[in-house]
Amino acid sequence: MMPRLVQKYDIEIETIAKANAEYMTDEYFELDLPMAPAVMVADEIVVEGTDVSEFELEKVICRHLDLPEPAAPRKGIFGRAG
Hints:
With 82 residues, the protein is of the alpha+beta class. It is built from 3 helices and 2 strands, in the order ααββα. The protein has a two-stranded antiparallel sheet with strand order 1-2.
């Protein structure tokens, strides 16, 4: 999902991966970052403790970039949303 969004929008993506124990330290809490797994766009926490759909993430990215929100994905037999 992330490579498609980078190609589509002028954004940078930073992935932070740590051992679970590192998210439970006082030092991590002092950073005022969300608990993993999480997704942030700029200073906005999009989700914390769960996954996010590509469509929901794309909507937040568009709001952040002052772009129109994308059209909702089509559902049904011919336009399956994934």
